[in-house]
Amino acid sequence: MPTIFLDFGNVVGFFDHQRAVAKMVGFTPLSATELTLSVYGSVVESDYETGRTNTAEFVRLAKANGQLTCTDAEFLEAFNDIFTPNPEVCDLIPKLAESHRLVLASNTNPAHFGRFSVQFADVLQHFAKLGVSHEAGARKPHAAFFAYCQQFADAPPGECAFVDDLPANVEAATAFGWKGIVYRPGEHLAAKLRAAGVVVE
Fold first, then answer.
1. Other CB atoms closer than 10 Å to residue 46's CB: what's the count?
2. Residue 135: other Cβ atoms inside 10 A
C-alpha cells in the first residue's frame, strides 16, 4: 500500500495567525505587525516547533517579547484558536485511506498540535501516524524531518507521495526521494495526485 504524506496547514486545515494577533493586540503597546513579528518571527517559535522549548517556556518568552499582559491561559486560547477545515481535502482523506497509508507531515508545536488533533479528530483518525516537527526535532524543509517521517511509511521513498502548500518543502521532499506535489487551497487535490501518478479511486 503506497504512502501519502500530507501537510496539515493549508492542506488538511487552514490556519490564520492574525486571528490570534487580533485577540492579543489589546494586551500590548505593540502594533499588530510588531506583535506578529515578535511572536511568530523569532527563534523562540522555531525552538518550540522543533521541541527545543516546552510550552511553559514558550509562553513566557513569547509574552515577554510581545510585551503582553494577558494571562498564560488567555495567550494560549488566542494562540491556538486559528484553525478551520479545508472541506475539499477533509472529504477526500477517508477515500484515500481506503487504498493508501496516510501519514501527517507537519511543522507544528505542542500547543497547536494539541488543539487541531482534537478539533480534527474525525479526519485524523484515518492517518496511520501523525508526524510532527516538535517530535521529529526538525522542521521542513530539513532532510531530518523527512527521514523521521519516512520511518512511518510502508513503502520506500520512491513509492511515497508528499503534499504541501509550500514549494520549498515540496522541493526538499523531492530531493529526499518522495513524489512532491504542491497543493494550493482551492485546487482539486485528487486531480493533482492523479497527475503525479497516485491512484485515486
1. 15
2. 14
| Residue in this structure with the C-alpha cell 520511518, named with its chain if needed | 151
Q: Among positive and negative, which fits the CA dihedral 164, 131, 146, 3?
A: negative
pLDDT tens digit sequence for 172-192: 999 999 999 999 988 999 999
Examine the pLDDT at 1 and tell me if it is beyond 80. no
- Per-residue model confidence as pLDDT tens digits over 49-68: 999 999 999 999 999 999 99
**CB-neighbour burial class of residue 133 (10 A; exposed 0-12, middle 13-18, buried 19+):** buried
- Quick one: cell of 29? 503597546
CB 132 within 8 A of CB 140: no
Adjacent-strand bridge partners of 74: none
Helix (H, G, I), strand (E, B) or coil at 162: strand
The answer, as to whether pTM is greater than 0.90, is yes
- Respond yes or no on whether the N-terminal peptide bond of residue 141 is cis (omega within 30° of 0): yes
> Would you say 177 and 196 are in contact if contact means Cβ atoms under 8 Å apart?
no
* Sign of the alpha-carbon torsion through 23, 27, 32, 35: negative
**What CA–CA distance (Å, rounded) separates 128 from 133?**
17
